[in-house]
Amino acid sequence: MSRHLDEWGFITELENQEGGTGLEKKLSSIWDSDFEELYFQNLSKRKQVMEKKENNRKLRVCVATCNRADYSKLAPIMFGIKMEPEFFELDVVVLGSHLIDDYGNTYRMIEQDDFDINTRLHTIVRGEDEAAMVESVGLALVKLPDVLNRLKPDIMIVHGDRFDALALATSAALMNIRILHIEGGEVSGTIDDSIRHAITKLAHYHVCCTRSAEQHLISMCEDHARILLAGCPSYDKLLSAKDKDYMSIIRMWLGDDVKPKDYIVALQHPVTTDIKHSIKMFELTLDALISFNKRTLVLFPNIDAGSKEMVRVMRKKGVEHHPNFRAVKHVPFDQFIQLVAHAGCMIGNSSCGVREVGAFGTPVINLGTRQIGRETGENVLHVRDADTQDKILQALHLQFGKQYPCSKIYGDGNAVPRILKFLKSIDLQEPLQKKFCFPPVKDNISQDIDHILETLSALAVDLGGTNLRVAIVSMKGEIVKKYTQFNPKTYEERINLILQMCVEAAAEAVKLNCRILGVGISTGGRVNPREGIVLHSTKLIHEWNSVDLRSPLSDTLHLPVWVDNDGNCAALAERKFGQGKGLENFVTLITGTGIGGGIIHQHELIHGSSFCAAELGHIVVSLDGPDCSCGSHGCIEAYASGMALQREAKKLHDEDQLLVEGMSVPKDEAVGALHLIQAAKLGNAKAQSILRTAGTALGLGVVNILHTMNPSLVILSGVLASHYIHTVKDVIRQQALSSVQDVDVVVSDLVEPALLGAASMVLDYTTRRIY
Q1: UDP-N-acetylglucosamine 2-epimerase domain spans which residues (predicted)?
Q2: Does 618 carry a binding-site annotation?
């Protein structure tokens, strides 16, 4: 003898024969040694739990049954539990159609089986339509909490896929009662599928009937250790029932003149997702059965929506009075087994036809889609589109009177012992909260807030007098990648280059895992930020007046676009990333080729009525000062800008008064502001005087700003800021009102204020901060 795991996952002994028996070969191909070792380990663990239970209290099991169909599956388990009072206490709750006279008052068969019914719950709202089903679920949900509070079961056993069962599972789950679900993982073809799978998600333990159902449960991320492949409990009765006396049962229900294999059992239910079609199909079925002219036992349909209309069809066809028909509301399961086992054919759409009847090889005609996903034996002939009487009649001629091999797809007759062992192995000390076994996947951090903040980015564009720069800027102000090109002299070349650089940067952003939220553009001149139009540019950028920047970029990149003046962008950069962060009022002054700035007042950027606010470089500090590019005289820009310093440096150089010992200017290099600064550092008194005058002019401008805006901070930005800071502070001490002399003046620590400011327009707005 050799030991193997049988088809149901339990140990069986097989004869050793040369080459092995066919069954042994089959089992060897299913179960490998690793799995067998794992099984024995799990069995050992469960045995330890069972040994502990022997010293503990009994397991209180509540079995809730809703109708005749589920009782046929639950009754064998209930008998098994009742036979082991040393392990279990059984509470029986009866509800649903069991308690309705029109459906046979089937609770009586529970009493006849000598079970004490602890609770009867009238939960059915009559109407037999969709609304009545919903109301019935609601009524059950209202009544069940009191019952469960009183019974306090350790575990509730729920069967199948009926709407009543959904109410049971929902109540138990919400009341922290463990649920054992029978027949989960199966597939049919109606709303029952959804209900069955919903109960699976609520249930803590699962008893399934087929290998496919087990795999479905695993695919649904249920814990494999809590799934028992046991087979269908009803098969424990079925496989030992056929040899019993059956003739008296056939005569009692169909008449004395009826012989085995010469009658039909019909059981058809409404399809709740297509009631009209299922009623029409039932009418065609009855017409075909009348024409077939064989004695037929017709069972009334279940209580689903549409059943009332099906009963009307039966009465319209005169089924209850037709000599070939016997119409009944209920047949006890033991007798029903004998009737289908010796029938010439079973027809309808009941799960019994595709499940239990296969155990006897009785021919079955399965009509419509209600059981479309069920595993079936070869005894089942499917008529998916039962839309004509003739099609159903042909199926009857093909199937009636045949005998097929017996099928054990749904069980081998040993389900109940396995279920009882499984119940004994449940550890009530385990956490109640169930865990789902999701398949391993690559860590997904895309919805992590830190990751989102890291990857949210903007395309920033800085249009300077010399260079055109595009950068990918992160939410934290990091420049992920930067692109620089010379700024073309014509509009066409410039706009084409901007588009080209932005498209390349956007494509690169995808590779860098940066989520581009939009495009921000910083440019010199007067800008209408509402329309994204450059109204008037500086003299440094040619052909750049009345230019719509928003439309071409937005149309090309399919992204929102913001445009603003470079001084305003510098202020925005300080507000988001720099020393102005969190301040209500501050002013930024840019000291570069020109002089610009931006004003933040009450946390918001000031644009002015004609978008000309913060033209700080054109504050006049001397009526007799040098000419300014704006056409006026004595502006800060005429003294302190890079262009002004370059002008003064050229004058000194032309007069041979710029260079001092240690300095030289190559012939091919233009004299600029940096040469003046270098000369001043090396002791050139005239250069020092020019820088001091420039710093004083800037300082006077700052004093005017302090007196006008009264900010809490002034930030000097740009390449010249560090050379002016001390002079500016001296002027404030000498010229400003005492009430503003304590205002701090600092040098910006931002390396790329124009790019960061352009990016902040995008990042602030798209993350719900309006700038």
Answers
A1: 87-424
A2: yes
Decide the pairing of beta strands 456-463 and 515-523.
parallel
Task: Report the distance separating Cα 270 and Cα 143, nearest Å.
Answer: 27
Beta-carbon count within 10 A of 190 CB: 23
Label residues 508-541 b or e (16+ Cβ within 10 Å = b).
ebeeeebebbbbbbbbbbbbbbeebbbbebbebb
What number is the average pLDDT over the span 459-464? 92
Choice among 7-16, 25-34, 681-690, 724-733 with the minimum mean pLDDT: 25-34
Query: Under 8 Å CB-to-CB from 218, ≥6 apart: which residues?
Result: 224, 227, 437
Q: Contact, 716 vs 746, CB < 8 A?
A: yes
Query: Is 154 annotated as a binding-site member?
Result: no
Label the pairing between strands 595-601 and 604-605.
antiparallel
CA distances to 146, 178, 228, 431 from 155, in Å: 16, 5, 16, 14
Nearest Cα to Cα of residue 613 among 588, 650, 581: 588
pLDDT tens for 473-514 read 998 899 999 999 998 988 899 999 999 999 999 999 988 888
Tens digit of each residue's pLDDT (9 = 90 or more) over 537-586: 877 677 888 999 999 999 999 999 999 999 999 999 999 999 999 999 99
Q: Which of 164, 564, 566, 764 is catalytic?
A: 566
- Those residues whose C-beta lies under 8 Å from the C-beta of residue 67, and which sit 6 or more positions away, are 96, 97, 98, 103, 106, 162, 164, 302, 303
Measuring CA to CA, how many Å separate 197 from each of 130, 173, 187, 275, 335?
20, 15, 9, 22, 31
DSSP 8-state symbol, 360: G
- Is 635 annotated in some ligand binding site? yes
The residue whose two tokens read 């805006």 is: 709
What's at 486, amino acid-wise?
F
Q: Which residues pair with 715 in a beta bridge?
A: 588, 746
Concerning whether 730 is annotated as a catalytic residue, the answer is no
CB 620 within 8 A of CB 631: no
Give the DSSP H or E segment for 510.
helix 491-511
Residue 1 pLDDT: 38
Q: What burial class does residue 492 get, using C-beta atoms within 10 Å of its C-beta: 0-12 exposed, 13-18 middle, 19+ buried? A: exposed
548: tokens are 């719509």
pLDDT of residue 630: 87
474/472 Cα distance (integer angstroms): 7
User: Which pLDDT does position 2 carry in this prediction?
Assistant: 37
The annotation status of 508 as a binding-site residue, yes or no, is no
SS3 221: coil
The pTM of the whole model exceeds 0.85: no
Q: Where are the alpha helices (DSSP H) in 578-667?
A: 636-640, 642-654
Tokens of 432: 């109640």
**Which residues are 315's β-sheet partners?**
none
Torsion angles phi and psi, residue 43, rounded to 5: -65, -40
210 vs 214: CA distance, rounded Å: 6
Q: Supply φ then ψ for residue 143, to 5 degrees.
A: -85, -30
Rounded to whole angstroms, the Cα distance separating 456 from 232 reads 55
- Of all residues in the chain, what percent are helix, strand and coil, respectively (each to 5)? 45, 20, 40
Query: Residue 401 and residue 362: Cα distance in Å, rounded?
Result: 8
**Interatomic CA distance for residues 645 and 724, integer angstroms:** 12
| Domains of the chain, first to last | 56-238 (3.40.50.2000), 241-399 (3.40.50.2000), 455-577+761-770 (3.30.420.40), 579-749 (3.30.420.40)
DSSP codes of every residue in 709-728: H--SEEEEESTTHHHHHHHH
Helix (H), strand (E) at residue 558: none
Is 538 labeled as ligand-binding? yes
| Residue 406 known to bind ligand | no
334 alpha-carbon distance from chain centroid: 47
What angle do helix axes 685-709 and 673-681 make, rounded to 10 degrees? 110
Distances (CA, A) of 100 to 164, 167, 250: 14, 18, 26
